[in-house]
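chain below, 1143 aa
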Amino acid sequence: MVNHPIEEQLQKRILIIDGAMGTMLQQENLSAEDFGGEQYEGCNEYLVLTRSDVISKIHRAYLEAGADIISTDTFGGTPLVLNEYGLGHKAYEINKRAVELAKAEAEKYSTSDWPRFVAGSMGPTTKTLSVTGGVTFDELAENFYIQAKALIDGGADLLLLETSQDMLNVKAATLGIKRAFEETGKELPVMVSATIEPMGTTLAGQSIEAFYISIEHIHPISIGLNCATGPEFMTDHIRSLSELSTSYISCYPNAGLPDEEGHYHETPESLSTKLKGFAEKGWLNIVGGCCGTTPAHIKAIREAIKDYKPRPKKEKSHGHAVSGIEPLVYDDSMRPLFIGERTNVIGSRKFKQLIIEGKYEEAAEIARAQVKNGAHVIDICLANPDRDELEDMRKFMQEVVKKVKVPLVIDSTDERVIEEALKYSQGKAIINSINLEDGEERFDKVLPIVKKYGASVVVGTIDEEGMAVTRERKLAIAERSYKILTEKWGLAPEDIIFDPLVFPVGTGDEQYIGAAEETIEGIRLIKQKFPRALTVLGISNVSFGLPPVGREVLNAVFLYHCTQAGLDYAIVNTEKLERYASLPEEEIQLANDLIFNTNDETLAKFTAFYRDKKKEEKKVELPATVEERLKYYIVEGTKDGLIEDLEEARKIFDTPLDIINGPLMDGMAEVGRLFNDNQLIVAEVLQSAGVMKAAVAHLEQYMEKVEESAGKGKVILATVKGDVHDIGKNLVDIILSNNGYQVIDLGIKVTPAELIEAIRKEKPDIVGLSGLLVKSAQQMVLTAQDFKAAGIDVPILVGGAALTKRFTETKIAAEYDGPVIYAKDAMQGLEHANRLMDSNEREAFLQEIRESREKRLEADAKRANQPKKEAPKKQARTVEDAPVFVPKDLKVHIKKNYSVQHLLPYVNMRTLLGHHLGLKGNVEKLLAEKDARAVELYNLVMDILNSGVLKPSGMYQFFPAQSDGDDVIIYSPDDVKTEIERFHFPRQQVEPYLCLADYLKSVDSGEMDYVALMVVTAGHGAKEKAERLKEEGKFLESHALLSTALELAEGFAERLHQEIRDVWGFPDPTDFTMKERFAAKYQGQRFSFGYPACPNLEDQEKLFKLLKPEQIGVHLTEGYMMEPEASVSAIVFAHPSARYFNV
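prediction:
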């Protein structure tokens, strides 16, 4: 929507959207009569007809508080939802009246300098197409059409699709809205707001990136998040949207989570402080509140963000992007992406038969297998002339979207089938295909669907004269198609995928002589002319009619040449893809001759060579010696025969370590060489690394402890602070750890302090820093400064998209005393590491690094002769004076039957799976790599968490408190002066002589301070269930249940402590991570009795007397332990210097 009055305002400032309607209505204490009778009680939307005065009053309160946008009381205004009260027939009247009420109030406040806007609220309905079902896509679209038309007729300024939990519902809504626009002749800006669950996806499973890519085609005026929990769960998603979206960004969270009385914990002050953090980061254009927020919240938010500039609107943020449940944001380094071709009734007999037999779920498993074997996208074709393609597509799509998360290619010549398929896919699909065979007829049929649902489209190089064989014709048709698509249909170049067509080289057909080379060159010409558009080929067509083994070889060689020419997508059978780098030179030559010099002679020679060849014969070609075979397995990326030959090698070599450092390492070195020579792609390198890992794992059982060394050397890896991108780092980890290095991966967003601590503990030979963002390069400079200040001079290896060799040499190296070495990719990183760790190479290599830098500095004339700063001598820590933080109230807060779903992100899987369940290694990494054992244990604990066995409850209360020497005095919350309890805490006998009492204002200061007391529990029942499991011999399940209960209680303690900080007036910073939370990097600290700083377990009795946790089912045993065992209690301090210490 261009030039709408709201657009002008959005460019000037951050706009405020109003708060909750439902919360305000609850405060009105309305009776059944107010709703028009008992049968309508709870239907808030009906109040626009029965108590319009109340609705108008709420709108006024929000306008008074400073809202720029107020939303209508129509969240459940579709006929579908209103029919739950028998009011569906009044939907149009209710929605239209709701807008009129809001507009009347807005106009009273609106001025030319400060216009106010009315957003027609459109909730998600009570049904979700992807999750609950119970409604069809077309029925939903009809419902949203009725609502949208009424909102437009009533005079709404914009439409707001909010609390969107399922992209299919959103797409149905956009169709209804578009129809309403066409019928009314009015087009309004559309705001889209998603709801992300605590686990990081929508209810229907999409990530926010996939959600955005799927809706981008409607060009919403804003995209954002609302509802769910509080703002802390939105941080990463708002950041991602801000980086990705070309729309404005909105954010209006709930006021946290409600307690048992329905009170939300975020005060106007705490919520506005958190949202101010988002504004500081430059992420916001529209901000406000959802459930639990009131005009007081909106007023505080307006005040908090008034001086911050809005996020500037982006013109373009990404290249080609498609999505399923997961996003696929493409860049050239990923070439070629594989499209799995086996879910195609034309190309796969097995798939065709399963569809004929009606075994749609089994057929969908074929799609899953293709993804497992490396397909990035799945091609779906159900065009069997003997069957109803539309019906088959409908039934298959319902199954396949449950099995695969990747984007889909809808392959059909029938536009009705294409449209039906898109009604089942949440994501942005690829449509295959259109061409100019009948002029623009096919374009005219398919492009409206592309625009309607959002899709990329494959364009074949075919016109009225037929299929293009020569490179010039391919380019000419591509040019004509491009012009029509971009100029007539307004399609983005990134959504155009040209198919330059592949013709068989083995048919002897005169017209196709030289066609393979023409296709390769056609790709090159199209990519040169249209660099933003993409290309796709069905590779296997080139070898049609040739002997089976020869086909696979020719396909691999042809794919290699097409990729070099710029091919982006390859339609292949990922389960039968030969590796180009593994082909014998003789066979590559045969294929090259056939591709580049197609004639009867080259065809006859190729056919003769492969005529009687069987695939199995490859085994005969295995190298003769065990050593060579082991190297071969690594290079090939195959485990067939590996274990047997490792056992043979043990008879030849003295120790298992000799096998690893000998033939296996030789294999990895060859993999590196082939990668650097562009003969292997990243996926194949990872395959080889997988074989290396399997080989080492097998040999480990025979290795003595003595042999478990750091191998070539020890490397610490980390993505720097503020950066969440770790693909590159993970690649380096895999390459190094499978080339003899011991790698310690610290993960993402690692602060310099965490790195320094790890370096001191692990004493690595090399530290690897990774970062994708521009600010990450600057962060590396800061990290180097901190290393230097800490007296660290270990060689640093740096890499990442935003980094250059120049920046490394001029900026990072200038701040560091040790070597700083730039690596352009993982393989170069390995090469540098090898040279560093080779005693014969090290000095020469470091000299090269020094000389390269000196030359650059001379050339830049920026020689930096900064004097060395001496690190200051460390002072003994003492508790400094700090201001008093006053809590919002001194009442008891009880949270019974707290949602386990909201606690899932707070459960520390590293502790649960690693410590409790004994999973060895980096838990996050093992889960990311889909390690079988890790996934099995993760699924086990997730089943427990989702089973309903654990029923967490918690409580906390603030108390006035002061220190008196080493005592902490607790005063009555009623009069804030009567002493009701006293805790005595021990003091350290050595520097810095700390005592918990130091964290409070003293009696002598005359100032009142505060502490919080808290207790949480995972609930009753876990112990009994665990006992039963034990008796049944299910020892792992029994242990896992108890462990999960303990970690759930710890996670709840973390969550409740966070809420305590919120209401105490010092919420966590905007970009605070769960990892930082687990490491207690926040302000203040909680201390549990029985631990070092407060070792007296008997003090539990005092805490219980004050808080009375019996209310949530927690009791104290005679030994002052809590029952249930999975419970946590603590005393909480707000002092910024509060930290754990030993006495």
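Residues 1035-1064 form the longest helix (30 residues). The longest strand covers residues 953-964.
thats it, cya
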